[in-house]
Design goal:
4-stranded parallel sheet, two-stranded antiparallel sheet, 11 helices, disordered N terminus, binds zinc ion
Length: 266
């Protein structure tokens, strides 16, 4: 009797994964119950957040600056269209959008994605970015990630912005050029430095890879980053892309600091 039951168990384990695979469910999902992307709580579907973590992640919605995408606190601010920063000086990029506010909830997703090899977070983050950047994805010609310096790439093993860019490019059916930009030198954390100091630290940090210059001329580039803080990094990238002949540069980030004056370290 015991033998029969174990034989039946074997048959089941041989058959069930096959059935689940047909439904697109991997072996791991069949063996381990799916858990929240951010904590260890069980969820119904792999690649989702539990109710409690979901409540702590805040998407960026209107009203926001038409140029840099910073969310406005009051609907009246939207009447101006531009935030005070963009009104004072337009950035080198045309339009920037981000999916999430970079607060504690978003940090719990993005920091493990950046630093703890949680590469499976790229899919769910890219999905949110595709929502926030629908118009930018539709109008771009090529998709390019903000590059890492090779030393950092070597220690992290992957460029998180490139993982996001690859997913977005596949989803939108647009060409992805992961090595178009080069980070010519490593930069210290920009942290709490002022705008002028950040710009000075980033001057000459990026360049277009000489053999790929032809890919930029006349193109509308969509630049991908994980977190937009002051915007100094994407500004430096947009400047070199424009100098290389890009027709336009838009920016899409997974998250952004709601108020650029509140500086975050990552
Ligand atoms: Zn959770
Ligand atoms: Zn703005």
């Amino acid at each position: 009797m015991a033998m029969r039951r174990s034989a039946l168990g074997e048959m089941e384990s041989a058959l069930i994964p096959k059935g689940l695979k047909r439904l697109g469910i991997g072996l791991l999902d069949a063996v381990l119950p799916p858990h929240c992307l951010s904590c260890e709580d069980p969820v119904m579907t792999q690649g989702t957040l539990c109710a409690s973590c979901f409540r702590q992640v805040h998407t960026i919605t209107d009203p926001l600056c038409v140029c840099c995408g910073v969310p406005f606190r009051h609907p009246q601010q939207a009447l101006a269209g531009l935030c005070p920063n963009c009104a004072a000086r337009r950035p080198a990029y045309d339009m920037a959008r981000a999916a999430l506010r970079y607060d504690d909830g978003a940090r719990r997703l993005i920091l493990p994605f950046k630093h703890a090899d949680r590469q499976e977070l790229a899919g769910p983050l890219a999905l949110q970015m595709a929502r926030a950047g629908k118009a930018l994805l539709a109008r771009c010609d090529i998709i390019v990630p903000v590059p890492l310096h090779w030393l950092r790439l070597w220690s992290r093993r992957y460029n998180q912005a490139a993982l996001l860019g690859a997913k977005l490019a596949r989803g939108a059916g647009k060409p992805f050029v992961p090595d178009l930009l080069v980070r010519a030198r490593a930069t210290p954390p920009l942290g709490d430095r002022g705008a002028a100091e950040r710009a000075a630290l980033l001057a000459g940090a990026f360049r277009v890879r000489p053999r790929l210059v032809r890919r930029v001329a006349g193109q509308r580039v969509l630049l991908i980053d994980d977190v937009m803080t002051s915007g100094a990094t994407v500004e430096a990238c947009a400047l070199v892309l424009r100098a290389a002949g890009a027709a336009a540069v838009d920016v899409l980030a997974a998250a952004r600091v709601p108020d650029p004056r509140l500086v975050e370290r990552s």
